[in-house]
Amino acid sequence: MVAVLDINLFDGDIPKAVETILEFCNAEDKKNRLISATGAHGIVTAYEDLNFKQVLDSFYMNLPDGMPGVWISRFKGAKHIERCYGPDFFKEMIVASKDREIRHYFCGGKEGVAVELKEVCEEKFGNQYVVGVNSPPFRELTEEEMLWLANDISSKNVDVVWIGLGTPKQEFFASRLSKHTNVHAICTVGAAFDFHTDRLKQAPGKIQKMGLEWFFRLVVEPKRLWRRYIKIVPLFIAWNIIDLWKFYFNSIKE
Predict the structure, then answer these.
(1) Whole-angstrom Cα distance, residue 156 to residue 4?
(2) What SS3 state is found at 141?
(3) The whole model's pTM is what?
(4) Could you tell me if 38 and 65 are in contact, meaning their C-beta atoms sit under 8 angstroms apart?
(5) Closest CA relative to residue 69, chosen from 116, 2, 148, 125
(6) pLDDT confidence band for 249 (50 / 70 / 90)
(7) Are strands 160-164 and 185-188 parallel, antiparallel or unpaired?
(8) Is the peptide bond before 168 cis (omega within 30 degrees of 0)?
(9) How many Å apart are CA 155 and CA 11, to the nearest integer?
(10) What pLDDT, on the 0 to 100 scale, is given for residue 254?
């Protein structure tokens, strides 16, 4: 693990993350381990909001969802870190588990998105073990609704729950759900549901490698995202410059 603005990121790649979760699923006991795909948005939000930071700190793994987090981690000495992009992590896990009878449950997206994603996994990725879906209302669930969802998951003997609600809502949701479920892992993967059902267009690979996916998404969805990125991008850069400066001089002193 390596800290970026005090959030520990997974020092590995997608194959290693997938291997780790498959190992969870081989165990008899279910520990509701929380896994997030965390980019600049989540890191900056956690730096500003102590409650959200405490939630991310409670996660078993925070995967480096964006290239900027990867670059900073490498500067700090992370030797194995690679981008663990949420949609790619989701796809690789679905494909890797298609013949293992690992049971998946999808929670998120607008009405019908989770159902369509289930069909994509069956037809495109060859995985027939998506045993349940749910599209929760935009508002916060009542305790009764959360218990109903947890019971639905438990009744289907689910191994991995996938949540796509957007940061920070999905991480708070996952943390709350984990108190009532009995699964191996709960993974938050942002816009993966919309990307894999072709509701959103993904940035080309070269743009992703340049760390400019945020700009591509801003161009595609300006009305929804301009407020987020006009704040997140400058703060992420400024705070990390200060943090790297401190890291550099502390390294010299040591």
Answers:
(1) 37
(2) coil
(3) 0.92
(4) yes
(5) 2
(6) low
(7) parallel
(8) yes
(9) 35
(10) 59
